[in-house]
Automatic annotation (TrEMBL):
Position of the signal peptide: none
CDD domains, A to Z: PT_UbiA_COQ2
Descriptive protein name: 4-hydroxybenzoate polyprenyl transferase
Biological processes, Gene Ontology terms: ubiquinone biosynthetic process
Family: Belongs to the UbiA prenyltransferase family.
Location of the protein in the cell: Membrane
Residues that span the membrane, as ranges: 54-71, 77-94, 173-192, 198-218, 230-248
Originating organism: Haemonchus placei
GO MF, any single term: transferase activity, transferring alkyl or aryl (other than methyl) groups
Cofactor names: Mg(2+)
Matches recorded under InterPro entries: Prenyltransferase, UbiA_prenyltransferase, UbiA_sf
Length: 267
């Protein structure tokens, strides 16, 4: 792209994003607008820090906070933080394996988590914050894996990343990110009173992350790429658990309401 084409594309994307954002409540709009700071910082972070994956995770998972702000009361916003942290750590793991260049991606990519929540609830509570932090950890995980693919070129051009920062000690860091991500997702489920299907899926998610960390060869670009791409299946497992768990929770709630109504009728 030429400079003019890039500017035109940016303008179009920003206009489209703003159009969507304005359909939400004003608290969600504020949360979504705040993510622009991370969007601007992320490209610069690669040149000044070894943790661009963290910024990536924070950005990618911001939607957790936005969704919470749209859906739930503002005084419950803190409940989403563990989930947000978990997703950020996951991003760090898989992107570190890729090239070790993007910690800042986590903060930016996951901003949508906050935006989505705020759009539905009009406020942010602990659940979306937990979700956002979980997503940030996930981003740190997968983006660190991703960064390992480019570490040779990054050294040549002077670009930094978590992959370069961690070096041969990458796996212990990935393990930490993955653990924090699962903990955040678990805390989020507890806060929102998820049912057993969610936790079954969470166990599968934990197993998948453990497989990635234990088997990835950070010095093999092809293997890093395979592990990075495998995160789509991890996401599918977790999503299925969220859907099934939420459906069961709704069924239980409806059943409980019916029982109460029957008791009132008998009374």
């Amino acid at each position: 792209l030429t400079d003019k084409q890039a500017i035109a594309l940016l303008g179009g994307l920003l206009a489209t994003s703003l159009t969507v954002l304005l359909q939400m409540n004003w608290f969600s709009v504020a949360v979504g607008s705040a993510s622009m700071f991370l969007v601007v910082v992320y490209p610069l972070a690669k040149r000044y820090t070894y943790w661009p994956q963290f910024v990536l995770g924070a950005t990618l998972n911001w939607g957790v906070l936005i969704a919470w702000a749209e859906l739930l009361p503002r005084d419950q916003f803190y409940t989403v933080l563990p989930l947000y942290v978990s997703t950020v750590l996951h991003t760090v793991i898989y992107d570190t394996i890729y090239s070790q260049v993007l910690p800042t991606i986590g903060l930016t990519f996951n901003w949508g988590a906050l935006l989505g929540w705020s759009a539905i609830e009009g406020s942010l509570s602990s659940a979306p914050i937990a979700l956002y932090l979980a997503a940030l950890q996930w981003t740190l995980l997968y983006d660190t894996i991703y960064a390992h693919q480019d570490k040779t070129d990054d050294i040549m051009i002077g670009v930094k990343s978590t992959a370069l920062r961690f070096g041969d000690n990458t796996k212990p860091w990935l393990c930490g990110f993955g653990t924090a991500a699962i903990a955040g997702l678990g805390l989020t489920g507890y806060i929102v009173e998820q049912t057993w299907p969610y936790y079954i899926a969470l166990a599968g998610t934990a197993a998948h992350l453990a497989w990635q960390v234990c088997t990835v060869n950070i010095n093999d670009s092809n293997d890093c790429w395979k592990k990075f791409k495998s995160n789509q299946w991890m996401g599918a497992i977790l999503f299925a658990g969220i859907v099934a768990g939420t459906y069961l929770k709704k069924e239980k709630k409806d059943s409980h309401s019916k029982v109460n109504n029957d008791d009132l009728d008998e009374f």
